[in-house]
TrEMBL record:
It comes from the Bacteria. This is Protein nucleotidyltransferase YdiU. It is an enzyme of class 2 (transferase). ATP binds at residues 80, 82-83, 98, 111-112, 162, 169, 240. Its EC number is 2.7.7.-, 2.7.7.108. One of its GO terms (molecular function) is AMPylase activity. Nucleotidyltransferase involved in the post-translational modification of proteins. It can catalyze the addition of adenosine monophosphate (AMP) or uridine monophosphate (UMP) to a protein, resulting in modifications known as AMPylation and UMPylation. The active site is at residue 230. Pfam families: SelO. The lineage of its organism: Bacteria, Bacillati, Actinomycetota, Actinomycetes, Mycobacteriales. Belongs to the SELO family. It catalyses: L-histidyl-[protein] + UTP = N(tele)-(5'-uridylyl)-L-histidyl-[protein] + diphosphate; L-tyrosyl-[protein] + ATP = O-(5'-adenylyl)-L-tyrosyl-[protein] + diphosphate; L-seryl-[protein] + ATP = 3-O-(5'-adenylyl)-L-seryl-[protein] + diphosphate; L-tyrosyl-[protein] + UTP = O-(5'-uridylyl)-L-tyrosyl-[protein] + diphosphate.
């Protein structure tokens, strides 16, 4: 499989070469054949033993990407792909494998592995978001590794392979700024996503792209759960489906993530958190806005001042009510363009528990259902009682 490596070649100090660990008994669980074909990937090859080695990061050169991130408001200067590898690029899309084992960016004590349940969760929810018209990374494949790993209990290990317009994040720009690489990284981001823009234009385009995506989240009652700067992409795509969930009765203070102990990323706070994250992006671009620091700050402030209007326009375009109204459980008969089927929390949780025990039948039923959000499904089209319901990141 011949992939490009434009990111690693243009920005060698932003990556570390790495390979996926050997797996005892890798098996292809899911392959998104329509997505593979749309990218020009050979489906038969991906199903072969050599294709499996490719998806596991065993053949060719792969890279762990460097980035920083404000996690729940606290800066971590060096994060990076601690359990993931960029396999390369094809048709303008990254091919990225997560759960492949330790990398040069793995934290102490981390095994770098993924569990089957969370990998299947990312695959299904990202496909649902795609069907719902939300910019998102997408699931290309899920591979079971044949390895048992310790989480809250011993569970089967797995890897998810996803595609993305890129993995450039606000956190990428933060790392670049702290390591004197902001200009080449910003130039690469412009060339890849927003050709012809200057640095202020780059910032403004990211604002618009992200506001559009978050407004679509708000319409659907989607709660990301970890809106850290390392999970805020420059392309505007939704990334990282760890502790995400869908609100099923309207309440702006709803959140489900077990690690969001203060509700920082609760439903009603997502637009303002996006603004906070974008302000961190503006800080990285100050040296590129103008050589005069004072003038650079003026440019950043004046551009950032546009955010409220941009966000409100995006919310209006999605017909999101900010204070009241039922978002996820809309009356489908009165609002025929609204989705009736979404990955509701309890059925998905039930399906993932069954997959962990070796039964994928219910999961596969839900996977097909979420690809058709306008069609009724008995489990996915009615709200559940989510009192006390929690989601977990699965790392």
């Amino acid at each position: 499989m011949k992939l490009e490596h434009s990111y690693a070649e243009a920005l060698p100090d932003m990556v570390r070469a790495a390979h996926g660990e050997e797996q005892p008994d890798p098996q292809l669980v899911l392959l998104n054949e329509p997505l593979a074909e749309s990218l020009g990937l050979d489906v038969d090859f991906l199903k072969s033993d050599e294709g499996l080695k490719f998806l596991l990061g065993h053949s060719g050169t792969a890279y762990a990407q460097a980035y920083s991130g404000h996690q729940f408001g606290q800066l971590s200067p060096v994060l990076g792909d601690g359990r993931a590898l960029l396999l390369g690029e094809i048709s303008g899309q990254d091919i990225h494998a997560k759960g492949i084992g330790r990398t040069p960016f793995s934290r102490p004590g981390s095994d770098g592995r993924g569990a089957l349940g969370p990998m299947l969760r990312e695959y299904l929810v990202s496909e649902a978001m795609h069907a719902l018209g939300v910019p998102t990374t997408r699931g290309l494949a899920v591979i079971s590794t044949g390895r048992k790993i310790q989480r809250d209990r011993v569970v089967p290990g797995a890897i998810v392979v996803r595609t993305a317009a890129s993995h450039l994040r606000v956190g990428t720009m933060q790392y670049a700024a702290m390591t004197d690489q902001i200009k080449p990284v910003a130039d690469y981001a412009i060339a890849r996503h927003y050709p012809g823009e200057d640095y202020q234009g780059l910032f403004r385009k990211v604002m618009h792209a992200q506001a559009n995506t978050v407004a679509k989240w708000q319409r659907l009652g989607f709660i990301h759960g970890v809106m850290n700067t390392d999970n805020t992409t420059l392309s505007g795509e939704t990334i990282d489906y760890g502790p995400c969930a869908f609100m099923e009765q309207f309440d702006i203070n709803t959140y489900f993530s077990s690690i969001d102990t203060q509700g920082r990323y609760r439903y009603g706070n997502q637009p303002s958190i996006l603004g906070w994250n974008l302000a961190r992006l503006a800080e990285t671009l100050l040296p590129l806005f103008d050589e005069d620091p004072n003038h650079a700050i003026d440019i950043a402030n004046s551009t950032m001042a546009e955010f409220t209007d941009i966000m409100n326009e995006a919310l209006d375009a999605e017909d999101v009510q900010e204070v009241d109204g039922d978002i996820t459980v809309e009356n489908h008969k009165q609002n025929p363009d609204s989705p009736i089927t979404i990955p509701r929390n309890q059925p998905l949780d039930k399906a993932l528990k069954q997959t962990t025990d070796g039964d994928l039948s219910y999961y596969l039923e839900l996977l097909e259902a979420v690809k058709k959000p306008q069609e009724y499904h008995p489990d996915l089209s009615n709200p559940g009682d989510l009192e006390g319901f929690l989601t977990f990141c699965g790392t």
